[in-house]
Batch of 3 targets.
Target 1
Amino acid sequence: MKRRDFIKFSALAATAAQASRIEGVKQTIFDNKKVFGANRFGTFWANLNSSQIVSVSEFEGDKFPNTMNYSLPDSVQNENRVLYPMVRKSYLKAKGAAKSELRGKDEFVRVSWDVALDLAAKALKENFDKYGAEAIYGECYWWGGSGKVSWGRTVAHRMLKVLGGYVEESGDYSTGAGLVIMPHVLGGSAVYDAPTKWKAIVKNAKNVVFWGTDPIVTNQISSVPPTHDGYVGMQELKKSDIKTYSVNVMVNDTARYYGSENIIVRPNTDTALIIGMCHYLFTNNLYDEEFIKK
């Protein structure tokens, strides 16, 4: 390249780079947006720039904003996210189940949505035709989506009913045993009833026992977007003179927060402890007989 051409090229490149920087600055200045969002962790403001989440701000109506939402920019935009339908190479070649010994080893290849849906439809039809609806377990993770119209579980149920039916679970995976047992203990399901408010607990309780629970941690999330109002009441309990106990396999965050007296049990033995306590109360006539009759 001649010296004159080199200088001319460099000048053009510098001008183009400067224009690009100016455009970039314009985009940075004028393309900022603040969008309201909600998920299992709570409600928040997503700060966008050029359609990218750059940060998350706390929503004013959330009593104790969940810091886990600060990870949204990375979790939404992380390069490890699967952006397209992918199929095992041997499965795609056979257009169905093949070489199961390669599971976990086989290469995954990208396919179009049409191909992915055709493969899924083919697999469903073959199993319906061969084994019948009773061979189709039609459940999927409940917390997999928010809302009801496009909720994955509901949509899957609708489709499988159209195809001929499916096997549905009884109760649910979180509180299955409780749904069966509690009606015999308290006369209702209890696990999904409105719980006693912290205000009433603080006003009336002499002692509070946290049995196999860690609400300081678990109240951060909910099946619907939480506003974390419960933490206000939990702080009131902290300020009171009520003695707290924690029955658990370890000293957890809640026990540390309240300075609870810890009753450490071996894993899976807390039910035995309950039965032993009930037996002691019953045989020594230390229970409220009239209350139990009701």
Target 2
Amino acid sequence: MRRILMALICAASVTTVVHHSAYAGNTLNAPAGPPKIIIDSDYNTLSDDGQLGVMAAQLQAQGSLKVLGITVVSGNQWLKQGVADALKSVERLGVENQVGVYAGANYPLSHDFATIRAELKAFPGGDGYLGAWNTPEPKSDSDLVAPPDGFATHTKVQSQSAVDFIVESVKRYPGEVTILAIGPLTNIALATRAHPEIVPLIKQIIYMGGAIDVPGNTTRTAEFNWWFDPEAAKTVLHLPIKQVVIPLDVTDTVQMDKALYDRVAHDPAKQTIITQLFKTLNGYGFDGKNGFETNPNYTTNIWDTLTLAYLMHPSFATQTVDEWVDVDTSFGTNDGKATGYTSSPPAGLRKMTVVKRFDNPAFFDFYVDLLTRPVPVKLPD
């Protein structure tokens, strides 16, 4: 792998932060003012995207964060299902009047199902997770699957599109908006292509995406978010914006075990609708049988919520590397594969921060605290 070959070069660009104190409520590395964010997500009820939504709402309630809106894109599930889950999420949390849900792209820019099938046949490998492509596309509301506590009853999707909302928000708050890009990058690519004038106005993009020096998950080389729409990923990665990547390199090392799961799902003093849904939707594994509730040795990685943790507490990243990052868009075994260059990058790439390791105990305290707070969230007066 490149990290071995380039060890001496990497050493010059690796920043290691030794972090000794545990998360202590709102005091650890608290930002000077509340950051403004857009959550761009292939949303779900309470897997990693939905968990980030809960955590962000709690931070907003305490005045530490301003969530401008949730822009939904197809990825883990089709757009209509993701929108339905996001609408119920903000309603469940009691923030539907503060956080709008905006529908975005339903299809990748160029990665269609025929290409996917041809690639997987020609180049087998990875875990084969295809997200939305694994299920029939819902054509009407009758095709949607309700969350365990039902659909939203009064919260509606915003009439403005996700792309227009991103453009308008960035122009309204120039230099202030951070985009947490925790799904495929189609919405952001469309927004910046149609309105390139917003590019210098975006404060930063923090991604959960890519597999730099580790194997992929969907394929042998590609991480799911960037594989789902590699053309969009390439478009956005090349933009002259401050960018931070939380790749599989770090998420592979941040794992939930039974003890951590129990801190959220089984603390008798902190039972809420969120902890109940957390147990229902995360306790039985991806197959509905092998999970925390049935197997004491079960583990799973933690993904998207690391982006929010990094935004709020950059010191949680105990090792980072400054690299130029690109993604492959060619048909074949490497479609969607991310590559990091520590020196001599191809023309047109942007140098960015790639997170390699996290302070897991501090993050876990942050994670459990926000997922187990009372619901509905207590909004500021």
Target 3
Amino acid sequence: MADYVNLVKLCVGAEKVEDLTSWQAARYGKANPVHVTRMWPKRAEEVLNGGSLYWVFKGVILARQRIVGLEESPGADGITRCAIVLDPEVVRTEAMPRRPFQGWRYLDPKDSPRDLPKGRTTEDALPRELLTALAEIGLR
């Protein structure tokens, strides 16, 4: 059993991994990108012990970024949020369908998609539409 846990999050406003990488490069350059979220993980120690943030694009997990820190991020409204500090490297993963949800969810390492080999941006398996249909009927 792994001694860490991952997070999974919808990549709102992005249709493909390149949208995420372009946005992060424009906003953060070579610095660590940050994703600010309302809730602080109760399992923070496990998240910081090797966890990654898996990104869902249009109903399918396609990439992940290693989580390197969690920081307090005070908002203009006076509410303190959680800034998830990410490794700048975006790692492509096998496509894994995921139904819509709000916020983020924990993702057990045994249920996480495998990384694609370096340099490979897609897998030659099933089309996204078919993966999504399989997920909807509970077969993947």
